[in-house]
Amino acid sequence: LRRNPGETEFHQAVREVLESIGPVLGKHPEYAESKVIERICEPERQIIFRVPWEDDNGEVHINRGFRVEFNSALGPYKGGLRFHPSVYLGIVKFLGFEQIFKNSLTGLPIGGAKGGADFDPKGKSEREIMRFCQSFMTELYRHLGEHTDVPAGDTGVGQREIGFLFGQYKRITNRYESGVITGKGLVYGGAQVRTEATGYGCAFFVEEMLRARGTSFDGKRVVVSGAGNVAIYTIEKVQQLGGRVVACSDSSGYVVDEKGIDLDLLKQVKEVERARIEVYAKRRGGDAIFIPGRSVWEVPCEVAMPSATQNEITGRDAERLVRNGCIAVGEGANMPTTPEGIRIFQEAGVAFGPGKAANAGGVATSALEMQQNASRDSWSFEFSEQRLRDIMRDIHSRCLATAEEYGMPGNYVAGANIDGFKRVADAMLALGLI
Ligand code: NDP
Question: So what family is this one in (predicted)?
């Protein structure tokens, strides 16, 4: 705490992992002897930089850019970029720290990193977004490389922004280095299913949790928070698996649509028009209602899939969800449930899939994009989706088996933290004091 003052989200993320791995340290004294914990909590490198850019009226703005290269024991640094006004070092470090264990859990050769800027894309023109991305990459490019550090998207950074970032990287370096960034458009080296991967992967993970309890999505009432990349493709896959998604949200409020969310309309409003969620309710007519300024977690559901932001499910929300009959939670977002919320879910016997495991499908498919770029190949949608499904099933079964092995059956949080930690820790020991 003294070393990293004020970084509350980072403290929260570290505490959760350290609380889980006590039993591992008991079995493996070599981790403590070589100070693996202390090393893993300290990023290998942190970069903070100025991002100056000009708006359409010629006014100059200065934002702050970040890249925290946390751990490269398993492979090149890998993790998304977030553009949101709330971004500061504590947020980037929490995301980067979680990314180490998530990437390890996928079983693929990728280290952990995260980055972004306190830039607010809302209300900006496309030309302003492009100028910002170009200025951001003009500093960041020197730290990147397909064998060094490979960013991707996150909140506020979708395919459009990845295109601008990659274009500027290519221009500055004079290298068509496809594997330097993932989440690219299909016409210039992107991979099938990457856009859908985090949401689809989360739905597959929850499908496995439900199956382990002898049930399925079929006919279940589901609430998804957010209406961005993760939320939209979570809704799409849940609907394909037979679930009925009755509500989603953005930072202005939520919509309830008892007939089930109309996905084509949602995509039109959010992906094409980039409008507020209220517009969805207006267009849908009598069937949907917009509730401004309130939490979507007041809508009763059997499955909750938080896909917006950190700490969006508080202890109070968790209590209400349990009271309303929620039996499973799959975290599409990173750390969307507070520690108190997690405790309430676990004590109530709710199947709780933490983000590190449940949303790992995005980065796993990014690693598949890197594989395709390295071999100058491109795989079909069906093949890529099957790979994603297999990876999510494997993560699910390893979380369960590890939790069982360490005497905490059904505890996916412990399973994910222990399994993710061990692989990284073993690699760090093998590589010497680095
Ligand atoms: P997007 O920017 O595409 O969408 C974010 C959505 O969440 C928007 O609807 C946004 O509403 C809403 N939201 C953001 N902040 C808040 C807030 N403070 N309160 C209420 N709603 C909010 O981001 P993504 O879908 O890519 O990411 C969502 C989450 O998933 C993040 O936690 C991210 O780290 C995580 N994640 C994303 C991955 C990916 O592949 N994209 C991979 C793994 C995890 P509004 O537009 O009003 O701000």
Answer: Belongs to the Glu/Leu/Phe/Val dehydrogenases family.
